[in-house]
Structure formats: C-alpha cells, structure tokens
Design brief:
With about 375 residues, this protein is mainly beta. The chain is about 10% helix and about 30% strand. Helix 2 packs antiparallel against helix 4.
Amino acid sequence: MLTQKAFLRVEDRSTRRSCTLLLGMAAALAIQAECRGGTVAADSASDPAYGDGWQGLNEVVAAEMGMDNGGFGFLPWDFEVDEGFWEPLRCPYDRPHFIDTQPTQFNDLGAPAFALTNANIPYFGYTTIATRPFAQALAVGDQLSVDIDNPVMQKLAEFDSVGFIISLRSADGVERFGLYTTQGFNNDQWTIADSRGDETATGFTDEEGSAGFKFAFKLTGEEAYQLTITPHDGGAPLTFEGMLAKPGKGEISKIRFLMFGNGSGDGHNLPTGEREFYFGNLMIESSGSAAVQKPSDCNQDGSLDISDGVCLLGRLFAGGELPCEGSLDAPGTRALLDANGDASVNISDAVWVLGFLFSGLAPPALGTDCQNIDGCPDNATKCE
C-alpha cells in the first residue's frame, strides 16, 4: 500500500545556477542568454503540443508515448511508469494522463487542463505521476506557480489510503519540498514537508482545495523558501516560510504531481470527473536579483567573524538598521541571519555564530560560501 510517507523522502544537493537556458532535452544545444528577470518558463494545457492529447516519456499506455513539451523553459513531461500503478480495466478513462477539454462541475480551472486519474480498486496503492523537469534549476528569487484543483478525497474502501502530492525535486529525483494531503491525516489539510519533517499543517483542507487554488513557491535563499496558497474562490492567501529539507543536497529541478488511491470518475464506471486531480498554468518567474551575501554577515563587511555575532545581538536588543529588508521577519533578513536554520532570527543565531567561530560547532545553516540571497543588497565586492 502506498501512503504519503512513501513519497515524502527528501534529499538533494545545492549549487549555484548559471544563466544558461537549455532549450529542449538536456543533451540539446545550450544557448547562452541574459535570462535573469521576467518569465523564464511557462506552459498550459492549451498549448498546441497537447492538441492530440497528452504524451510523455515512460508512458503508461501506448497512446501516451511521446515527448510533449509545451510552452518554453521546460523539458518534456515524464510519467515515471516505474513508480506508477494503474489498471485500465477498472477505469472509465482510456489513459491515466489526459487533457480535460470539457470540464465538469468538478473542474474549477476550466478547459483545457492537465488531469490525472486512477483505478477503481482499493488497497493496492494505485498511483499516477506526472513530472515536469525545468530547463534550468530554480535560482534564488525565482517563483514557481501552478493552478491546482484537487478532488475531495474519497476512499474506495474503509481502510484504504488516498492522497495528492506536489513535490519539488532535484535532477536526481530527490525531494526538497512537498505539499500533500492524505485522508485521515492532519484533518485532511494540505501539509508541508520540509526541514521540519512532513507534518506541518497549513490549515487549508482538501475540501477548500476542491474549489481551486494557486500554488506559488518562491526560493528566497539557497535553502529558504516562501509558499503562498491563494484560493480561487477569493479567500485570503496563506503564506508560509521555512527551509528546504537536507541543506546542500541539490537544486530544485523538477515538479512532480502525484495521486494515489481515490479512484476514477464516479468511483465505478462513469467518467464524471469527480475524482480527478487537475492542474495547469505552470510558470517560473525570476525577480532578476543577484544579491551576493556571506551568510550571517550582519555588519556587511563581507566576512564572518565575532563582530557579526555582536552586531546581531545589538540589532536584537538595541535596534538599528538591518542588513537586508526592514524587519527580522522579512525573508531576506531571515535567510541571511538565521544561522541555526529554525526559520526565525533570535539570540540563538548569535550564539550559533559564536559557537562556530570559537567552539568548533557547525557552520551557519546556509554554509560559509558567498551566495545569492534574495531581498538583500549585493555585497559581492566585499564578500570573501
């Protein structure tokens, strides 16, 4: 049986991204481009590439075989059949991946939209996966967004499992961040998987998600992120900040959509769209910033030493100008000064810096190399 735990294993590596835009497969010719700033990737189910349906690498059925790559800035879809499990004889659709061109009352994204479906058999963990690699990994300041419409979760049997996962992964397929919901866990809320583990509830339920929402993930530091969930029904956006799991293990290079259990159509024989997982309008936008900073460099002299611990203590207890954005809660300030990686800036971060310098303790959470930290000024000329 497949549950959310089977898919939320997070490990990666982290490196700096160049401004090279790969058009097509990774083995294709590379074209150098001044690509910082603006939209660097976009795709929707209305692209002509999907006019004859939705095809991808590692197809589940013969009709899905292909290399569809609509829009720009992405690599072809991959259906990862080695981890998928689908039964065509117990599904009212002829394939597990399809373009919904005539949406029902259950598809609030409108037509066309990408759609995942499944088999109407309980207990076997039937799973459908669609993965979209990026032509270039996310850089600090980039925002990845996609419109989501999940169905209300419905088990096919009392003790079955069901859920949906949005997973951000390295080129090697190791997860750095996950947003998932599984029936019976965290009151059916969408839940975050990051450096804190995989149990951080968002307060946003699968029922609320069934009206549609925008998933927007921004990389605010080499290992820091900001997630915004914006309901399509006009509800207030929900914003979360944290650190990626397993720092230093890899750039985010693909997004994976996964559904397990839940069945298909009406749960029996009719293709009603009631149990399908819909999404569309994938986009990666860059802020165009290139703010090089030394992690924990509070006094902005380009190095990390005792003066930075003293500087942080002064800002915490006496106030004064911060090196980045205007408050300790701002993403840039937090990314720069959060030495212990607990997603906040306080006295423990100053103690961490001093412990690293004088007691041989671990370095700051972002390491000691100069790197891009969005929301901070560029200190590249001083950074050592």
